[in-house]
């Protein structure tokens, strides 16, 4: 049994996604036995550098790059079998076999996870396209919203376990496509050119290829915990994109930190530590309020230096100053006790670095540190900025806080003060060794 100070741990983003969770999960994984995805789907993209290679994974938990670690895709995930198959194939080509030809099965997929079907992706694209540009969410077009909508609706849903039964699939898809055709005709002016039998055959094949990985992960995880295995939960998207507590409707369609229990199938009290990941600045992809956004040269500089282009869609990310009001809200919501601060190196070379410490909402001129998750209200909020002196030095070689220039240390200390939670990791580059574990023993798992 491996012992960590953290206990069973969940890693979540504190902002609007793309915080660098992949690197943190990868760093922590060596202290865990099982890495679990419990929310979202292929809208998430985790980039990890491992053994000198770059991996961009959307559904397979990034932790499986470590030999001996088992990856679990839990019931709360919207699973696109095509993407899982593609990722498994690519991993195998690069020497990482999670099960197909190996005696150790290192991936388990919940039979309760919901399947993203081709019509979900189409519906995602068409429903965005029919809206005026200022009303669009700017989704990743991976079919996430429509798949979760069908899950809640229940009768039009297909779960991973269903892929194993051809007759059932045929019957269900005939019904589902009949209904979808009507909806597509009515909403988008044209029906679906999909044949139920063909689609059933195709997805049954995917199910067969994945069959050895599919099962009841809920009981398996509970047993793993009872056996003393350490579990690491890997959140997709960021807290501010949470379906209930994010900037609705500019959110994704599942829960963030609060979704770990239902999404993975574990009691909430099992997860002892929530690690929040935030960059030293803020980013957002897609539409929605972003009070500290920089639409100027500084924003562009951050985008270029930080390579802020989507892993999933390659869209340029909107960039802005660190938003301490939003991050503090995310810390509170997720019960975050440790923070990993990413991309500090990206801010080098700026004369000043900003932190948004409060908002001025439209209805009052007073500064407020309340984060309104009401998108209408938040989009009219103006940021109150605190500007700190910047630093010119590149930080990629720093390995302890003492290696950082004074102004960078001051910036980190100020963030810690504003968040009221320990920053235990500071990342100064994409590689594993470009990481500072800050001081105290609690910093390390
Ligand atoms: P959806 O999840 O594809 O429906 O997209 C809804 C919103 O969440 C859009 O603004 C997306 O850009 C954003 N989003 C979803 N997943 C991620 C993520 O992993 N990183 C960043 N943004 C995301």
Short description:
Helix content is 31%, strand content 20%. With 445 residues, it is of the alpha/beta class. Strands 9-7-5-2-10-1-11-14-18-19 form a ten-stranded mixed beta sheet, with helices on both faces.
Give keywords:
445 residues, alpha/beta, Adenylosuccinate Synthetase, Chain A, domain 3, Adenylosuccinate Synthetase, subunit A, domain 2, 2 domains, five-stranded mixed sheet, 12 helices, 19 strands, binds inosinic acid
Give me the Rg, rounded.
22 Å
Give the CA-based shape.
globular
Give a short account of the largest sheet: 10 strands, mixed
Q: State the helicity in percent bands.
A: 25-40%
Structural class: alpha/beta
CATH class group of the largest domain = Alpha Beta
Ligands (ions, cofactors included): inosinic acid
What is the CATH homology-level superfamily of the largest domain? Adenylosuccinate Synthetase, subunit A, domain 3
Q: State the CATH architecture of the largest domain.
A: Alpha-Beta Complex
Notes on the protein architecture:
With 445 residues, the chain is α/β, with parallel strands linked by helices. The protein has 2 domains: 317 residues, Adenylosuccinate Synthetase, Chain A, domain 3, CATH 3.90.170.10; 99 residues, Orthogonal Bundle (Adenylosuccinate Synthetase, subunit A, domain 2). It is 31% helix and 20% strand. It has a 10-stranded mixed beta sheet, with helices on both faces. Strands 12, 13, 15, 16 and 17 form a 5-stranded mixed beta sheet that branches. It has a two-stranded antiparallel ribbon with strand order 3-4. Helix 5 packs across helix 6. It is globular, with a radius of gyration of 22 Å. The structure holds inosinic acid. The site of inosinic acid has 21 residues, from helix 4 and strand 10.
């Amino acid at each position: 049994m491996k012992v960590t100070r953290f206990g069973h741990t969940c890693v979540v983003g504190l902002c609007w996604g793309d915080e660098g969770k992949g690197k943190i999960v990868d760093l922590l994984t060596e202290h865990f036995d099982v890495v679990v995805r419990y929310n979202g789907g292929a809208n998430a993209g985790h980039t990890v550098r491992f053994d000198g290679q770059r991996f961009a994974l959307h559904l397979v938990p990034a932790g499986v790059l470590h030999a001996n670690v088992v990856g679990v895709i839990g019931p709360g995930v919207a699973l696109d079998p095509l993407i899982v198959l593609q990722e498994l194939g690519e991993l195998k080509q690069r020497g990482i076999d999670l099960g197909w030809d190996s005696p150790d099965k290192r991936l388990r997929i919940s039979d309760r996870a919901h399947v993203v079907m081709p019509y979900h992706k189409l519906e995602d694209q068409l429903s965005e396209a029919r809206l005026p540009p200022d009303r669009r969410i700017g989704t990743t077009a991976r079919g996430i919203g429509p798949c979760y909508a069908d899950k809640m609706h229940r009768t039009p849903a297909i779960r991973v376990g269903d892929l194993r039964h051809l007759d059932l699939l045929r019957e269900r898809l005939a019904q589902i496509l009949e209904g979808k055709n009507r909806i597509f005709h009515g909403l988008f002016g044209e029906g679906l050119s999909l044949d139920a039998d063909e689609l059933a055959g195709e997805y049954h094949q995917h199910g067969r290829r994945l069959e050895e990985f599919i099962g009841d992960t809920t009981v398996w995880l509970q047993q793993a915990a009872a056996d003393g295995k350490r579990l690491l939960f890997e959140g997709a998207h960021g807290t501010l994109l949470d379906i209930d507590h994010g900037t609705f409707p500019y959110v994704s369609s599942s829960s963030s930190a609060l979704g770990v229990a239902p999404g993975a199938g574990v009691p909430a009290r099992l997860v002892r530590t929530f690690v929040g990941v935030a960059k030293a600045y803020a980013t957002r992809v897609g539409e929605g309020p972003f009070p500290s956004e920089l639409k100027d040269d500084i924003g562009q500089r951050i985008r270029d230096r930080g390579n802020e282009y989507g892993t999933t869609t390659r869209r340029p990310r909107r960039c802005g100053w660190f938003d301490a009001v939003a991050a503090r809200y995310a810390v509170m919501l997720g019960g975050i006790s440790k923070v990993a601060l990413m991309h500090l190196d990206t801010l080098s070379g700026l004369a000043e670095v900003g932190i948004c410490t409060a908002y001025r909402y439209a209805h009052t001129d007073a500064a407020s540190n309340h984060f309104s998750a009401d998108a209408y209200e938040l989009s009219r909020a103006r940021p109150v900025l605190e500007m700190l002196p910047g630093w010119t030095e590149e930080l990629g070689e720093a390995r302890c806080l003492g290696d950082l220039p004074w102004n960078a240390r001051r910036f980190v200390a100020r963030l810690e003060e504003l968040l009221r939670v320990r920053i235990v990791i500071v990342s100064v580059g994409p590689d594993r060794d470009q990481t500072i574990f800050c001081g105290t023993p609690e910093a390390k798992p």
